[in-house]
Amino acid sequence: MDTRFNLFENEIGSRFAKRFAGTAMVIHGSSLPKSTQELMSLRASQINGCGHCVDMHVKEAAAAGESAVRLHLVAAWRESTVFTEAERAALALAEEGTRLADAHQGVPDETWARVRKHYDDDQIAALVCLVALINAANRLAVITHQPGGSYEAGMFAAAVD
Q1: Local mean pLDDT, 10-residue blocks, the chain (161 residues)
Q2: Which of 33, 78, 138, 157 has a CA positioned 20 to 30 A from the CA of residue 25?
Q3: What is the DSSP string of the chain?
């Protein structure tokens, strides 16, 4: 797959990317556990078929100490025993928030209640913003054909500094 367009080489794209990255840093700096952030981002990226983002979030999660077993089971988290109840609530929110067009009601009240049970208001704000952000990132990468495979852990943080 050849990249269609490099947003970073375009003035508007580059300015947008800097602000987009700044938004991501707000979430990264929140009290939402980093492992939860990476698992949610990975799951949404899998659903959206974004090879670039799957590559990034698998590698960032592994570099942060996430186990290979858990990373391999994210796609089948509902049928797995390796995730906490809080993580399962976050993964449900990530899936349902990503698949809005597939469900006429969006995120069901049952999922929202599970999220409220496990997370405080600041963490919920981070969860909701993360779902929106990763879906936007997936769309940017898929539309412009950003391939997976070349990401190295820490590249995102280095680019933002």
Answers
A1: 88 93 95 98 98 97 96 98 98 96 86 98 98 97 93 77 60
A2: 78
A3: ------GGGSHHHHHHHHHHHHHHHHHHTSSS-HHHHHHHHHHHHHHHT-HHHHHHHHHHHHHTT--HHHHHHGGGGGG-SSS-HHHHHHHHHHHHHH-GGG-TTSS-HHHHHHHHHH--HHHHHHHHHHHHHHHHHHHHHHHTT--SS---TTHHHHHH-
Q: Is 149 exposed, middle or buried (0-12, 13-18, 19+ CB in 10 A)?
A: exposed
Tens of pLDDT, residue by residue over 54-73, are: 999 999 999 999 999 999 99
**Residue 35 near residue 84 (C-beta atoms within 8 A):** no
> How many residues does the structure list for the chain?
161
Q: Say which CATH class 12-160 falls into.
A: mainly alpha
pTM value?
Answer: 0.94
